[in-house]
Amino acid sequence: MLKCREIEQMASDYLNKDLSFQQRMAFKMHLFLCHNCRNYIRQLKTTISSVQLMPAKQSVVIDDKVKDLAKQLREHASKQ
Amino acid sequence: MTDQLQRQDFINDAALVEGMLDGDSASFEMAVALYHPTMVNIAKAIIGEAFAEEIAQDAWISAIRSLTEFAGRSSLRTWLIQITANAAKTRLRREKRQVSLDENWQTNEMEDRFDHSGHWGEPVSQWDLETPEAILANSELSDIISQTFEQLPPQQQAVLTLYDLEGESMSDICNILDISASNARVLLHRARSTIQQKIAQYQDHF
């Protein structure tokens, strides 16, 4: 029987579907019996989805540093 | 002066490339704002902090030189990441010495959350803010996530960006960053786990 510590270590591989059939079954058996690990996996899944959603929610900041580099690159492009 | 643009105002890759080919300054600014930080981070993950900014700028120059060849087979971000990674690897070979790479990644152990028998030390609760939308709608939590992301060691941030944001395969990530598959998997899990713990800390005291 896998321990909670092992579930935590294997969690990303589980969510990425990178576990062997046997490992996956052992993982699911543990989740069936352990509500802490079920909550942990739910938290990790939500974390990944939040990270994936993050860029869409952020604004794009165009500050002086961005403008300077953009200007240099544009000048470089115009010389080609 | 700083301009803030919403991402929903994005122009797509093709339009951005076309704008750059036309010499449109807004397109250059948008491209730099969108992709430069990721490019610097990819360079950091491969060659370390010292050369990262320079590599990213060189990569832009190469990219602009071959902009007409951008065929849209991958996203513009992935194309730029590949150019940056190649530039960083070439430079690394030229430097012929191992530069400081994410030194802490092996020693950066997280707080042990388990007891001696391998069970959770503290119960893992269900979060009050359960959906990504609810989490990001909370401005404090959303700031915590972006700050944690930005403070991740470069290799962790690079793997997280490539896998979770860009949807690259593990084998492509290993090629881009020149790391082993087992390293990539550990780095990805550490990055995700660090962010999960920060969200959990906030939600537990909510």
TrEMBL record, chain A:
Domain of life the protein comes from: Bacteria
Pfam families for the chain: zf-HC2
Organism: Methylophaga muralis
Matching InterPro entries: Znf_put
Protein name: Putative zinc-finger domain-containing protein
Record-annotated Putative zinc-finger domain positions: 4-38
Lineage per the UniProt record: Bacteria, Pseudomonadati, Pseudomonadota, Gammaproteobacteria, Thiotrichales
Automatic annotation (TrEMBL), chain B:
Top-level division of the source organism's lineage: Bacteria
Gene Ontology biological process terms in this record: DNA-templated transcription initiation
A Pfam family this chain is assigned to: Sigma70_r4_2
CDD domains with a match to the protein in the record: Sigma70_r4
Gene Ontology molecular functions: DNA binding; sigma factor activity
InterPro entries linked to this entry: RNA_pol_sigma-70-like, RNA_pol_sigma-70_dom, RNA_pol_sigma70_r2, RNA_pol_sigma70_r4_t2, RNA_pol_sigma_r2, RNA_pol_sigma_r3/r4-like, WH-like_DNA-bd_sf
Residue runs in coiled coils: none
Domain RNA polymerase sigma factor 70 region 4 type: 144-193
Keywords: Sigma factor, Transcription, Transcription regulation
Domain RNA polymerase sigma-70 region positions: 33-97
Keyword Ribonucleoprotein: no
Keyword Metal-binding recorded: no
Family: Belongs to the sigma-70 factor family. ECF subfamily.
Name this polypeptide is given: ECF RNA polymerase sigma-E factor
Organism: Methylophaga muralis
The gene coding this protein: rpoE_2
